[in-house]
């Protein structure tokens, strides 16, 4: 099992969500994050431009079975990319174990419903 963490532009969230659903990824978590990077965002309020030192993005966290890793990463890249600086990053790490609390299932079986295999 792998954990995919992707930092993406807020403006690309719907495209990423739709693309993930197209490849069979129906569950993930996301939240607002702020960071510092090479990209700068400028805010305009009442005609005055303000340079902010932090960049607002979304963090998406997905746990997938090993066999779904490549298609999930490709879906994120295809849908989140604008070709400009600040499109984001994807990080992948190993997950040692997972449990479904309701049934006690563990490992890969805890990530999907039997009969609805991805």
Question: Explain this structure to me?
Answer:
Helix 1 packs antiparallel against helix 2 (69-80). The protein starts with a strand and ends in a 24-residue tail after the last strand. It is built from two helices and six strands. 19% of the residues lie in helices and 35% in strands. It has a four-stranded antiparallel sheet, covered by helices on one side. The protein has a two-stranded antiparallel ribbon with strand order 3-4. The protein has a single domain (2-111), classed as Alpha-Beta Plaits (2-Layer Sandwich). The protein has 118 residues and is α+β, with helices and mostly antiparallel strands.
Mean pLDDT rating = 89
Please trace the helix and strand order, writing H or E for each element.
EHEEEEHE
The end-to-end span amounts to 14 Å
CATH topology: Alpha-Beta Plaits
Largest sheet: 4 strands, antiparallel
The unreliable regions are none
Shape: elongated
Q: Structural class, from helix and strand content?
A: alpha+beta
Number of domains: 1
Percent helix, as a range, is 10-25%
Read across the widest sheet, the strand sequence of neighbours is: 2-5-1-6
Count of DSSP helices?
A: 2
Strand content: 25-35%
The top-level CATH class is Alpha Beta
* Spatial extent as radius of gyration: 17 Å
What is the β-strand count? 6
Give a brief description.
The chain has 118 residues and is α+β, with helices and mostly antiparallel strands. The chain has one domain: Alpha-Beta Plaits.
Task: Fill in the keyword field for this structure.
single chain, 118 residues, alpha+beta, Alpha-Beta Plaits, four-stranded antiparallel β-sheet, two-stranded antiparallel ribbon, 6 strands, 19% helix, elongated
